[in-house]
């Protein structure tokens, strides 16, 4: 799960870099997205705090908050992984470094076919990202 929040903060950092925000503003943007998702999914403060601490959710609503965040940042649309968006974010976050872009493409390809109900899909996708990043010895935020 650490990779989900890292990805969320990383994507917010990439987005914010276009607007000249700093890391603290990117983290604030991630909190805002999770707040929106908490409200729209009916999450609790515990669900929110769990996600902010980079832990896996312990409730089904928490899982749905992750799905919502995926949708808000453009990783998923109608249950489909938006691989091109993921790769675009990786390119932006790494200044188009071929080494990391290639790793991002490999990870995206491995995690491209995660299916299931929306909220379970989100968690299984995060677990795939985490496992693939670990297998490739990628530390948090190396790519995103």
TrEMBL record:
InterPro entries: PBP/GOBP, PBP_GOBP_sf. It is found in: Secreted. GO terms for biological process: sensory perception of smell. Its main location: secreted. The keyword Cell membrane does not apply. Residues 1-20 form the signal peptide. One of its GO terms (molecular function) is odorant binding. Keywords: Secreted, Signal. GO terms for cellular component: extracellular space. Belongs to the PBP/GOBP family. PANTHER family: GENERAL ODORANT-BINDING PROTEIN 19D-RELATED, ODORANT BINDING PROTEIN-RELATED. This is Odorant binding protein. It comes from Polypedilum vanderplanki (Sleeping chironomid midge).
């Amino acid at each position: 799960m650490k990779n989900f929040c890292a990805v969320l903060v990383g994507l917010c950092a990439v987005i914010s870099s276009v607007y000249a925000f700093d890391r603290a503003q990117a983290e604030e943007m991630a909190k805002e997205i999770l707040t929106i998702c908490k409200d729209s999914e009916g999450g609790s403060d515990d669900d929110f705090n769990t996600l902010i601490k980079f832990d896996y959710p312990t409730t089904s609503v928490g899982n749905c908050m992750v799905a919502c965040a995926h949708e808000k940042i453009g990783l998923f649309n109608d249950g489909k992984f938006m691989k091109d968006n993921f790769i675009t974010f990786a390119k932006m976050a790494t200044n188009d470094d071929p080494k990391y872009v290639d790793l991002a493409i490999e990870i995206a390809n491995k995690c491209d076919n995660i299916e299931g109900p929306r909220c379970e899909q989100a968690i299984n996708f995060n677990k795939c990202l985490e496992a693939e990043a670990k297998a490739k010895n990628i530390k948090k935020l190396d790519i995103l």
